[in-house]
Amino acid sequence: MIVDPITEEIRMFRRALAAQHDNDVHRIYEDLRKSERSSGRRFLSLPKRPARAPASVEPPQPLASSAESVAGGAPSPAAQ
């Protein structure tokens, strides 16, 4: 398996951050929010996007086998 050094570095930072906060996701989140507030930068919170309606999915049409199309199925476009 190929080891990607960038991915390994990200995993190292993630493990260190998790260990620093006893693997508590809520504590990690609060620490990150605190560092955002103390950074002096402006952070933007976007409104939630409306849910999209699911695309209508039509059932798949059965495929004619190659023997049917050669032996008497629909004529090919070239024959018309």
Keywords, separated by commas or semicolons:
flat; 80 residues; mainly alpha
Give the SSE layout.
Elements: H1 5-20, H2 25-39, H3 66-71
In short:
This protein is mainly alpha-helical and 80 residues long. It has helices spanning 5-20, 25-39, 66-71.
Spatial shape: flat
How many beta-strand runs? 0
Q: Kindly provide the radius of gyration, computed on alpha-carbon positions and rounded to a whole number of angstroms.
A: 29 Å
Distance between the termini: 55 Å
Q: In DSSP terms, counting alpha (H) and pi (I) runs of 4 or more, how many helices?
A: 3
Q: Helix and strand succession? A: HHH
Low-confidence stretches: none
Question: Describe it for me?
Answer:
The chain is mainly α. It has a domain of 25 residues. It has three helices and no strands. The protein is flat and about 65 Å long.
